[in-house]
Amino acid sequence: MTSTATPTRSLPDAELAHYNPKSESPTAKRVKSGVFHIVALALTAVVLYPGLWMIASSFKPNSEIGGTNTSLWSNNFSFDNFVTAMDGIGGVSTLQFFTNSLVLAVGAVVGTVLSASVSAYAFARIKFPGRSIFFGMMIATLLLPFHVVIIPQYIVFQQLGLIDTYVPLLIGKFLAADAFFVFLMVQFMRNLPGELDEAARIDGAGHVRIFTSIMLPLMKPALISTSIFSFIWSWNDFLGPLLYLNTPDKYPLPLALRLFVDQTQSSDYGAMIAMSVLALLPVLIFFLVFQRYIVEGVSTQGLKG
Questions:
Q1: How far apart are CA 214 and CA 204, in angstroms?
Q2: What is the dihedral of CA 265, 270, 272, 274, to 10 degrees?
Q3: Which of 12, 103, 155, 157 is most enclosed, with most CB atoms within 10 A?
Q4: Mean pLDDT across the stretch 101-126?
Protein backbone atom coordinates (compact mmCIF):
# COMPACT_ATOMS: atom_id res chain seq x y z
CA MET A 1 0.00 0.00 0.00
CA THR A 2 1.48 3.29 -1.02
CA SER A 3 0.74 6.69 0.50
CA THR A 4 0.79 9.89 -1.41
CA ALA A 5 2.24 12.92 0.38
CA THR A 6 0.96 16.37 -0.37
CA PRO A 7 3.70 18.29 -2.13
CA THR A 8 4.89 21.41 -0.33
CA ARG A 9 5.97 24.55 -2.10
CA SER A 10 9.34 25.85 -1.00
CA LEU A 11 10.44 29.42 -1.51
CA PRO A 12 13.41 30.01 -3.75
CA ASP A 13 16.63 30.88 -1.95
CA ALA A 14 16.52 34.48 -3.15
CA GLU A 15 12.98 34.98 -1.85
CA LEU A 16 13.74 33.14 1.40
CA ALA A 17 16.69 35.45 2.12
CA HIS A 18 14.47 38.54 1.87
CA TYR A 19 11.38 37.02 3.45
CA ASN A 20 10.48 38.59 6.77
CA PRO A 21 7.01 37.92 8.16
CA LYS A 22 7.36 40.88 10.53
CA SER A 23 8.35 43.39 7.87
CA GLU A 24 6.41 46.64 7.90
CA SER A 25 4.60 48.08 4.96
CA PRO A 26 6.15 51.05 3.14
CA THR A 27 3.32 53.28 4.37
CA ALA A 28 4.03 52.46 8.02
CA LYS A 29 7.72 53.13 7.52
CA ARG A 30 7.01 56.52 5.96
CA VAL A 31 4.69 57.44 8.82
CA LYS A 32 7.30 56.52 11.43
CA SER A 33 10.00 58.41 9.57
CA GLY A 34 7.77 61.46 9.26
CA VAL A 35 6.90 61.45 12.98
CA PHE A 36 10.56 61.08 13.90
CA HIS A 37 11.63 64.02 11.74
CA ILE A 38 8.80 66.22 13.02
CA VAL A 39 9.77 65.55 16.64
CA ALA A 40 13.44 66.10 15.84
CA LEU A 41 12.70 69.41 14.12
CA ALA A 42 10.50 70.53 17.03
CA LEU A 43 13.24 69.79 19.57
CA THR A 44 15.81 71.52 17.36
CA ALA A 45 13.60 74.61 17.18
CA VAL A 46 13.31 74.70 20.98
CA VAL A 47 17.09 74.41 21.39
CA LEU A 48 17.91 76.99 18.71
CA TYR A 49 15.21 79.52 19.67
CA PRO A 50 17.37 81.49 22.18
CA GLY A 51 20.06 81.91 19.53
CA LEU A 52 17.51 82.97 16.92
CA TRP A 53 15.98 85.42 19.38
CA MET A 54 19.40 86.95 20.10
CA ILE A 55 20.19 87.37 16.40
CA ALA A 56 16.74 88.81 15.65
CA SER A 57 16.85 91.17 18.64
CA SER A 58 20.20 92.57 17.52
CA PHE A 59 18.31 94.22 14.61
CA LYS A 60 15.49 95.59 16.79
CA PRO A 61 15.29 99.02 18.44
CA ASN A 62 15.51 99.07 22.25
CA SER A 63 11.80 99.80 22.56
CA GLU A 64 10.95 96.40 21.04
CA ILE A 65 13.35 94.33 23.15
CA GLY A 66 11.65 92.74 26.14
CA GLY A 67 8.44 94.07 27.63
CA THR A 68 5.20 92.93 26.07
CA ASN A 69 6.65 92.49 22.60
CA THR A 70 7.09 88.76 22.11
CA SER A 71 7.46 88.66 18.34
CA LEU A 72 10.67 87.20 16.96
CA TRP A 73 11.07 89.57 14.02
CA SER A 74 10.63 93.32 13.87
CA ASN A 75 9.28 95.59 11.16
CA ASN A 76 11.87 98.22 12.13
CA PHE A 77 14.88 96.29 10.81
CA SER A 78 18.06 98.30 11.43
CA PHE A 79 21.84 97.96 11.80
CA ASP A 80 22.02 100.78 14.36
CA ASN A 81 22.78 98.39 17.23
CA PHE A 82 25.84 97.04 15.42
CA VAL A 83 27.04 100.56 14.63
CA THR A 84 26.73 101.51 18.30
CA ALA A 85 28.44 98.29 19.40
CA MET A 86 31.37 98.81 17.03
CA ASP A 87 31.88 102.34 18.36
CA GLY A 88 32.77 100.85 21.74
CA ILE A 89 31.90 102.17 25.17
CA GLY A 90 33.64 103.92 28.03
CA GLY A 91 36.20 105.46 25.68
CA VAL A 92 37.42 102.01 24.60
CA SER A 93 36.88 100.68 21.08
CA THR A 94 35.29 97.32 20.44
CA LEU A 95 38.43 96.26 18.59
CA GLN A 96 40.36 96.68 21.85
CA PHE A 97 37.91 94.44 23.69
CA PHE A 98 38.25 91.81 20.96
CA THR A 99 42.05 92.06 21.13
CA ASN A 100 42.02 91.61 24.92
CA SER A 101 39.82 88.53 24.66
CA LEU A 102 42.02 87.11 21.92
CA VAL A 103 45.17 87.62 23.98
CA LEU A 104 43.62 85.82 26.96
CA ALA A 105 42.16 83.00 24.86
CA VAL A 106 45.34 82.34 22.85
CA GLY A 107 47.48 82.59 25.97
CA ALA A 108 45.21 80.10 27.73
CA VAL A 109 45.43 77.67 24.80
CA VAL A 110 49.23 77.85 24.58
CA GLY A 111 49.71 77.53 28.34
CA THR A 112 47.22 74.73 28.77
CA VAL A 113 48.51 72.64 25.86
CA LEU A 114 52.15 72.98 26.92
CA SER A 115 51.74 72.39 30.64
CA ALA A 116 49.02 69.72 30.43
CA SER A 117 50.86 67.66 27.82
CA VAL A 118 54.15 67.70 29.75
CA SER A 119 52.42 66.83 33.03
CA ALA A 120 50.41 64.08 31.34
CA TYR A 121 53.59 62.56 29.91
CA ALA A 122 55.13 62.46 33.38
CA PHE A 123 52.10 60.73 34.89
CA ALA A 124 51.58 58.32 32.00
CA ARG A 125 55.12 57.38 30.97
CA ILE A 126 57.56 58.11 33.78
CA LYS A 127 57.67 55.94 36.90
CA PHE A 128 58.62 57.97 39.96
CA PRO A 129 57.91 57.58 43.69
CA GLY A 130 54.46 58.74 44.69
CA ARG A 131 53.15 58.96 41.15
CA SER A 132 49.77 57.44 42.05
CA ILE A 133 49.43 59.67 45.10
CA PHE A 134 50.18 62.85 43.17
CA PHE A 135 47.85 61.80 40.36
CA GLY A 136 45.07 61.14 42.86
CA MET A 137 45.64 64.53 44.49
CA MET A 138 45.43 66.18 41.09
CA ILE A 139 42.14 64.42 40.31
CA ALA A 140 40.83 65.46 43.74
CA THR A 141 41.22 69.12 42.75
CA LEU A 142 38.37 68.58 40.28
CA LEU A 143 36.06 68.25 43.28
CA LEU A 144 37.25 71.55 44.77
CA PRO A 145 34.88 74.43 43.87
CA PHE A 146 36.59 77.43 42.35
CA HIS A 147 34.80 79.75 44.78
CA VAL A 148 36.65 78.20 47.73
CA VAL A 149 40.03 79.47 46.53
CA ILE A 150 38.95 82.87 45.21
CA ILE A 151 39.84 84.87 48.34
CA PRO A 152 43.22 83.19 49.05
CA GLN A 153 44.26 83.56 45.41
CA TYR A 154 43.20 87.19 45.31
CA ILE A 155 45.20 87.96 48.47
CA VAL A 156 48.30 86.27 47.02
CA PHE A 157 48.11 88.17 43.72
CA GLN A 158 47.39 91.42 45.56
CA GLN A 159 50.48 90.98 47.74
CA LEU A 160 52.52 90.34 44.59
CA GLY A 161 51.16 93.48 42.93
CA LEU A 162 49.61 91.56 40.03
CA ILE A 163 46.07 92.90 40.28
CA ASP A 164 44.82 94.61 37.09
CA THR A 165 47.14 92.47 34.96
CA TYR A 166 46.61 89.33 32.91
CA VAL A 167 49.04 87.30 35.02
CA PRO A 168 46.42 85.97 37.50
CA LEU A 169 44.28 84.84 34.54
CA LEU A 170 47.09 83.07 32.66
CA ILE A 171 49.64 81.82 35.18
CA GLY A 172 47.51 78.84 36.16
CA LYS A 173 47.30 77.79 32.50
CA PHE A 174 51.10 77.52 32.31
CA LEU A 175 51.27 75.55 35.59
CA ALA A 176 48.87 72.75 34.61
CA ALA A 177 46.22 73.97 37.04
CA ASP A 178 43.41 72.58 34.86
CA ALA A 179 43.34 68.98 36.05
CA PHE A 180 40.65 68.02 33.56
CA PHE A 181 42.96 68.51 30.58
CA VAL A 182 45.83 66.68 32.29
CA PHE A 183 43.52 63.75 33.02
CA LEU A 184 42.29 63.74 29.40
CA MET A 185 45.82 63.52 28.04
CA VAL A 186 46.94 60.94 30.61
CA GLN A 187 44.12 58.62 29.59
CA PHE A 188 45.01 59.13 25.94
CA MET A 189 48.72 58.41 26.48
CA ARG A 190 48.06 55.29 28.54
CA ASN A 191 46.41 53.71 25.52
CA LEU A 192 49.44 54.25 23.30
CA PRO A 193 51.61 51.12 23.07
CA GLY A 194 54.63 51.11 25.37
CA GLU A 195 56.72 49.44 22.66
CA LEU A 196 57.10 52.86 21.05
CA ASP A 197 58.99 54.14 24.11
CA GLU A 198 61.13 51.03 24.34
CA ALA A 199 62.12 51.19 20.68
CA ALA A 200 63.03 54.86 21.04
CA ARG A 201 65.16 54.18 24.15
CA ILE A 202 67.04 51.43 22.30
CA ASP A 203 67.90 54.03 19.65
CA GLY A 204 69.21 56.30 22.41
CA ALA A 205 66.30 58.73 22.69
CA GLY A 206 65.58 60.39 26.03
CA HIS A 207 62.32 61.61 27.49
CA VAL A 208 62.48 64.94 25.63
CA ARG A 209 62.97 63.25 22.27
CA ILE A 210 60.28 60.64 22.96
CA PHE A 211 57.83 63.32 24.02
CA THR A 212 58.43 65.70 21.11
CA SER A 213 58.97 63.18 18.30
CA ILE A 214 56.62 60.34 19.25
CA MET A 215 54.00 61.38 21.77
CA LEU A 216 53.01 64.82 20.48
CA PRO A 217 52.28 63.68 16.89
CA LEU A 218 50.14 60.79 18.16
CA MET A 219 48.28 63.08 20.60
CA LYS A 220 46.95 65.39 17.91
CA PRO A 221 43.23 64.67 18.60
CA ALA A 222 43.65 65.21 22.36
CA LEU A 223 45.72 68.37 21.84
CA ILE A 224 43.16 69.90 19.48
CA SER A 225 40.26 69.00 21.79
CA THR A 226 42.12 70.65 24.66
CA SER A 227 42.73 73.73 22.54
CA ILE A 228 39.06 74.01 21.58
CA PHE A 229 37.70 73.76 25.11
CA SER A 230 40.41 75.98 26.56
CA PHE A 231 39.76 78.66 23.94
CA ILE A 232 35.99 78.65 24.46
CA TRP A 233 36.20 78.64 28.26
CA SER A 234 38.70 81.48 28.31
CA TRP A 235 36.80 83.51 25.71
CA ASN A 236 33.58 83.24 27.73
CA ASP A 237 35.17 83.71 31.17
CA PHE A 238 33.49 86.48 33.15
CA LEU A 239 34.30 85.90 36.82
CA GLY A 240 38.09 85.83 36.49
CA PRO A 241 38.43 89.17 34.65
CA LEU A 242 35.79 90.68 36.93
CA LEU A 243 37.95 89.85 39.97
CA TYR A 244 41.39 90.85 38.73
CA LEU A 245 40.88 93.60 36.13
CA ASN A 246 40.00 97.18 37.06
CA THR A 247 40.91 99.20 33.96
CA PRO A 248 38.29 99.26 31.16
CA ASP A 249 40.90 99.21 28.38
CA LYS A 250 42.01 95.78 29.66
CA TYR A 251 38.51 94.30 29.76
CA PRO A 252 37.69 91.29 27.56
CA LEU A 253 34.36 91.02 25.77
CA PRO A 254 32.33 89.47 28.63
CA LEU A 255 33.11 92.47 30.85
CA ALA A 256 32.57 94.90 27.97
CA LEU A 257 29.04 93.56 27.54
CA ARG A 258 28.28 94.48 31.13
CA LEU A 259 29.14 98.12 30.43
CA PHE A 260 26.09 98.48 28.19
CA VAL A 261 23.76 97.71 31.10
CA ASP A 262 23.48 100.37 33.79
CA GLN A 263 20.77 99.98 36.42
CA THR A 264 20.99 103.65 37.45
CA GLN A 265 20.71 105.09 33.94
CA SER A 266 19.43 104.00 30.55
CA SER A 267 20.67 100.63 29.33
CA ASP A 268 21.43 99.96 25.69
CA TYR A 269 20.24 96.38 25.42
CA GLY A 270 20.24 96.48 21.64
CA ALA A 271 23.95 97.29 21.45
CA MET A 272 24.70 94.70 24.12
CA ILE A 273 22.90 92.00 22.15
CA ALA A 274 24.59 93.10 18.92
CA MET A 275 28.01 92.84 20.57
CA SER A 276 27.00 89.43 21.93
CA VAL A 277 26.37 88.28 18.37
CA LEU A 278 29.77 89.62 17.30
CA ALA A 279 31.45 87.96 20.28
CA LEU A 280 29.84 84.65 19.36
CA LEU A 281 31.24 84.60 15.83
CA PRO A 282 34.90 83.75 16.66
CA VAL A 283 33.83 80.91 18.96
CA LEU A 284 31.39 79.58 16.37
CA ILE A 285 33.99 79.69 13.58
CA PHE A 286 36.64 78.10 15.82
CA PHE A 287 34.22 75.33 16.76
CA LEU A 288 33.03 74.63 13.21
CA VAL A 289 36.58 74.38 11.89
CA PHE A 290 37.75 71.92 14.54
CA GLN A 291 34.51 70.20 15.61
CA ARG A 292 35.47 66.79 14.21
CA TYR A 293 38.50 66.67 16.47
CA ILE A 294 36.32 66.94 19.60
CA VAL A 295 34.83 63.51 19.04
CA GLU A 296 38.20 62.07 18.07
CA GLY A 297 39.90 63.50 21.14
CA VAL A 298 37.29 62.12 23.51
CA SER A 299 36.52 58.77 21.89
CA THR A 300 39.81 57.80 20.27
CA GLN A 301 41.65 55.32 22.45
CA GLY A 302 44.97 55.57 20.64
CA LEU A 303 46.78 52.75 18.96
CA LYS A 304 46.21 49.23 20.15
CA GLY A 305 49.30 47.08 20.14
A1: 14
A2: -160
A3: 157
A4: 93
